[in-house]
Q: What sequence folds into this?
């Protein structure tokens, strides 16, 4: 789970060297990127011996996808760095899920359509992160529906097929958890393919008895306890197992 790129201000920031190091390390360890949708359906298209990694980016921050004045990708944003890596490592292509806030949508309003088209052409997908990033637990049912429903409506306008998954802002679950199973809003039925948490451990296989599609854990990309570096160390030390494509 990634948020920002830049000099570290808090655990939500990944430096350039850390982000490129993540790509290099995961590639070396045999991980291959898949989208949330591919993970949830099990249709990951992995080569034998490969393991899936679901790269998710929250909040649609400008440092994730930024274009230069000529419309080309800024090589210093997350997408630019990943594209450069993928050019020399085609086995680790840009393939990710962006949990968006439609009102910000990576900044640079004039490039909005071009950015969405670019992400789609790379095999990435957009997904639901609500409209205003509230603590859903504090909201009444009607407001929870509005936050998720308006984002779903925005995703449709951006050309993203529905239903999509939802990343819970701050990992906060609504008091009425049944809303995550679907609800009617603005005359339409809103469905979610999966609901993702903030942390702090690897997600199980969808065939694992422990799997709950309405509470899927994610690993935060940081150096802290139970962050990405911690879990990659655990894997290299043989303390955790991952799915390997037969």
A:
């Amino acid at each position: 789970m990634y948020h920002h790129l830049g000099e570290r201000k808090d655990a939500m920031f990944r430096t350039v060297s850390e982000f490129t190091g993540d790509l290099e390390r995961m590639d070396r360890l045999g991980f291959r990127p898949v989208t949330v949708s591919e993970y949830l359906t099990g249709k990951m298209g992995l080569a034998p011996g490969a393991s899936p990694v679901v790269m998710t980016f929250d909040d649609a921050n400008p440092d994730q996808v930024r274009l230069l004045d000529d419309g080309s990708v800024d090589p210093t944003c997350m997408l630019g760095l990943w594209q450069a890596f993928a050019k020399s490592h085609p086995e680790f292509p840009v393939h990710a899920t962006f949990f968006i806030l439609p009102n910000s949508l990576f900044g640079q309003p004039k490039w909005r359509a071009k950015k969405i088209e670019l992400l789609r052409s790379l095999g990435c997908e957009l997904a639901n992160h609500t409209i205003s990033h509230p603590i859903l637990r504090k909201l009444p049912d009607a407001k929870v529906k509005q936050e998720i429903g308006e984002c779903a409506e925005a995703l449709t306008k951006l050309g993203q097929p529905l239903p999509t998954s939802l990343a819970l802002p701050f990992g906060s679950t609504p008091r009425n958890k049944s809303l995550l199973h679907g609800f009617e809003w603005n005359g339409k039925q809103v469905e979610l393919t999966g609901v993702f948490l903030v942390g702090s451990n690897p997600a199980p296989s969808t065939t694992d008895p422990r799997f709950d599609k309405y509470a899927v854990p994610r690993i935060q990309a940081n150096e802290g306890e139970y962050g990405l570096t911690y879990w990659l160390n655990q894997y290299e030390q043989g303390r955790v197992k991952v799915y390997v494509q037969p």
Remarks:
- The chain has a mean pLDDT of 96.
